[in-house]
Write a structure and sequence with these properties.
Blueprint lengths: L21 E8 L7 E4 L4 E4 L6 E3 L10 E6 L2 E6 L5 E3 L2 E3 L1 E4 L4 E4 L2 E8 L16 H13 L6 E4 L6 H12 L5 E5 L5 H9 L16 H4 L4 E5 L6 H13 L1 E2 L8 E2 L3 E6 L3 H6 L5 H7 L2 E4 L7 H12 L8 H9 L5 H15 L19 H12 L6 E5 L2 E3 L26 H11 L3 H8 L3 H11 L11
Parallel strand pairs: 3-4, 9-19, 12-17, 12-18, 13-14, 14-17
Antiparallel strand pairs: 1-2, 1-11, 3-5, 5-6, 6-9, 7-8, 7-10, 10-11, 15-16, 19-20
Helix pairs in contact: 8-9, 8-10, 12-13, 13-14
Length: about 475
């Protein structure tokens, strides 16, 4: 592997088999479930209580004998409700829906996450980085692969995704005899940044009462973690680049140089390439730091890990949680990632002494509309027609209720009109949201025939060849 190539956690660290990703279903919450269960979706699967071939049988009293049928379609799965009390995708009740990677399915009191897994991805044991999500497995594999090499590593990721944990794991797996030293570049005044990096001698400036070696020398033979590197002043960036290239430092107030050979791990939540384009970060320093690039995945992309992380802080199994609460935890976008999750889990642990943990316990902490209110609304809509189709996009479900009946317009003479260009996906999505899969109404809005409109809906994934028209 050439170390000037960008290696991402998404791409992994070794060649992936040419076969496409594997679609799987992760059972993350439900009665009698002690830990998550992952099963491949190679063919149609039925979830229910019936102990029959082809049925994933679970001891959930609120699940029908054959509750929901899942049919893999490429990298997505078609969800068909066959129950008496409903199936939910991303919190919305559906009769039929298309679910994609990371979507949450609820049947009774059981919760599942749809997941795509790359075939042949390499995982490794990294104690501090927990999780079964494919993105975490690839990240751990990447750490084990690059850690032994003396190459600068840039860790990119949102705040709270564990970038310092990755840096420490890289050091621990490297076998280096030197120390692990961390410096938050965004927390030191510009006037002191040079002294913190390169050191100073006594009397170099007011307050310098004794010699200080600086973090580069402290990490000699080990690892220097430069957190929030994107906050480093431009003037200091030039001096850091020279020190990294020459592997020596000159303390402030001195003319003597000292060896400083540390492996650099830098991290930021900012887009450094954009900062380079805007002149806020030196391109040559970026190239020097980005020998290998790793990305820490946000928590919203690791939904199957959420309840396990809550359980670790809660100190009790999450199977005891009210299902609405567990579902809300999975659907919450977690803008502040694991740091936010730990705060919520700590509050749950404290509130556990007051009584059962339900969604009402911390509803104001989770950015998820009332699940019960949405279900009542959809339940009312489903009484209007025999079938309701719900289009589900990741993290943003769109409920498409059946439209009210409208009298057919009187026959009228056809008028010639210019042919309009085919609709784009955004326009079709808006029409599906407004009219459901009522082919006639969408055809009138587009100015196309019903046959052509149906082709548009099938190509876009809103209908299949076997679906009947909803008029």
């Amino acid at each position: 592997m050439a170390w000037d190539e960008e290696v991402t956690a998404e791409a992994g660290t070794e060649a992936i088999a040419t076969a496409g990703p594997e679609l799987s279903l992760v059972h993350v919450h439900g009665p009698g479930l002690s830990s998550a269960v992952t099963m491949p979706l190679l063919d149609a699967l039925v979830i229910g209580r019936a102990r029959e071939p082809g049925v994933y049988a679970i001891p959930d009293a609120r699940i029908s004998r054959k509750h929901v049928r899942l049919l893999p379609e490429g990298e997505r799965v078609r969800v068909e409700d066959t129950s008496t009390n409903g199936t939910f995708v991303m919190g919305a009740r559906v009769q039929r829906a298309i679910a994609g990677d990371g979507d949450v399915i609820r049947a009774g009191d059981s919760l599942f996450v749809v997941r795509l897994r790359a075939r042949g991805a390499i995982d490794a044991s990294v104690a501090a980085l927990l999780g079964t999500a494919p993105s975490m497995q690839r990240l751990r594999g990447a750490i084990r692969t690059v850690a032994p090499h003396d190459v600068p590593i840039l860790v990119l990721g949102e705040s709270g995704t564990g970038k310092e944990l990755v840096a420490r794991a890289l050091h621990d797996a490297s076998g280096r005899s030197g120390a692990f030293v961390a410096l938050n570049c965004g927390a030191i005044p510009e006037a002191l940044a040079e002294s913190q990096l390169f050191g100073h001698v006594a009397g170099a400036f007011t307050g310098a009462r004794s010699d200080f070696p600086g973090v580069l020398r402290q990490a000699h033979g080990g690892t220097l973690f430069l957190d929030e590197i994107g906050e480093m002043p431009l003037a200091i960036q030039a001096k850091l680049l020279r020190a990294l290239e020459e592997r020596v430092v000159t303390p402030v107030g001195s003319t003597k140089t000292f060896a400083a050979q540390a492996t650099i791990v830098a991290a930021t939540h900012r887009d450094l390439r954009a900062a380079v384009d805007e002149g806020r970060f030196r391109g040559d320093l970026y190239s020097r730091l980005a020998g290998v690039v790793l990305r820490t995945p946000p928590l919203r992309e690791r939904r199957e890990d959420v309840l396990a992380l809550v359980e670790r802080t809660l100190g009790r199994t999450t199977s005891e949680l009210d299902t609405d609460l567990a579902e809300a935890l999975l659907l919450h976008p977690w803008p502040f990632n694991v740091r936010e999750l730990l705060r919520v889990a700590t509050e749950l642990r404290i509130r556990a002494a007051e009584g059962p943990l339900t969604l009402a316990t911390i509803a104001d902490r989770l950015d998820v509309p009332s699940l019960s209110a949405r279900r009542v609304a959809v339940s009312t809509a489903t009484t209007m027609e025999s079938e309701v189709v719900v289009l589900v996009e990741p993290a943003t479900p769109t409920i498409v209720p059946s439209p009210p009946a409208i009298a057919a317009p009187p026959p009228r003479k056809k008028k010639s009109r210019p042919q309009r260009p085919p609709p784009d996906r955004e326009e079709l999505a808006g029409l599906v949201e407004e009219h459901g899969t009522n082919v006639s109404r969408i055809a009138r809005a587009l100015g196309y025939s019903r046959r052509q409109t149906r082709r548009f809906l099938i190509t876009g994934g809103w209908m299949s060849e076997s679906d009947p028209d909803v008029d």
